[in-house]
Amino acid sequence: MVAGSKHACLLVLAGVVAACRSDRPATDAAKAPAAADATPAAATASPPLVHVTATDFKLDLPAKIPAGAVTMHLMNEGKEMHQAMIARLEGGKTMADFAQAMKSNGPLPGWVKFVGGPNGIVPGATTTATTVLTPGNYVAICVIPGTDGVSHAAKGMVTAFEVTPATGPEAALPTATDTVVMKDYGFATSRPMAGGSHTILVQNSGPQEHELVLLKLEPGKTVKDFGDWATTGGMKGPPPALPIGGVGGMQPGGSAVFTADLAAGDYAFICFVPDAKDGKPHVMHGMTQQFAVK
To answer: Which of 8, 28, 223, 234 is spaced 20 to 30 A from 185 at the CA atom?
Structure first.
């Protein structure tokens, strides 16, 4: 989504800084309190489930999370679209350093490394995304712009957390049913997308940061319609598509996994990360892929 001159993920509904409605699973009723620490990975080394609650304008999640693959379960309880992009603060940098960096008009400093996280979803929806986290300081952030054009991050939708060394075997990414490779400027899928449940491995093989936004297109609409609506159209009028998850911005060489249930209809992948050379959202460089699910 776009977020001004900062590393905007213009997901417009789910972006990155440089810089649909679905039923909630029954497990949500027993989610851990936001302030509690996540449960460490078990001996089976399966990724722990970390609940992330999005409201207008706040992200609640555990203060400490064990290292290894972690599945972020994003629940949008707000009235606007939200995401929970994850960034590692390298070099011992802290939330205070990040907040100071956000005040500048230029791109975010090089010590901010985006590593994925759940991409944008509409109010009432949920989604999951799994990424590998190493020990250190992190932030979860939503930079989707509101109807007033102001990034949600500027309204306080940034939460710091710490990744601590694992006390047992580190969890690994789950086995995928499908693979999508991102590059400059496109998406390559391992096979045609069919209906049903998918566990999708997303890999960034390009030389710069990319994201994957999964869209469910409205009848008769195209991915170009959505790209125009989100950029030159100023997000005016009903959106031609709804974001239903995906993976937030990732550095070159990064990998993450997300899940999606696809019913019959038209879908698309799209990337809004600003280009490293000209600053234009990657959608303007043609980074989209539309596909039909029978």
So the answer is: 234
Q: Which residues of the chain have pLDDT under 70?
A: 1-44
The two three-digit tokens of residue 63, written as one number? 């203060």
CA 131 remoteness from chain centre = 11
- Kindly report, residue by residue over 5-33, the tens digit of the pLDDT: 344 433 433 333 333 333 333 333 333 33
pTM recorded for the entire structure: 0.85
The domain spans of the chain are 178-293
**CATH of the domain spanning 178-293:** 2.60.40.420
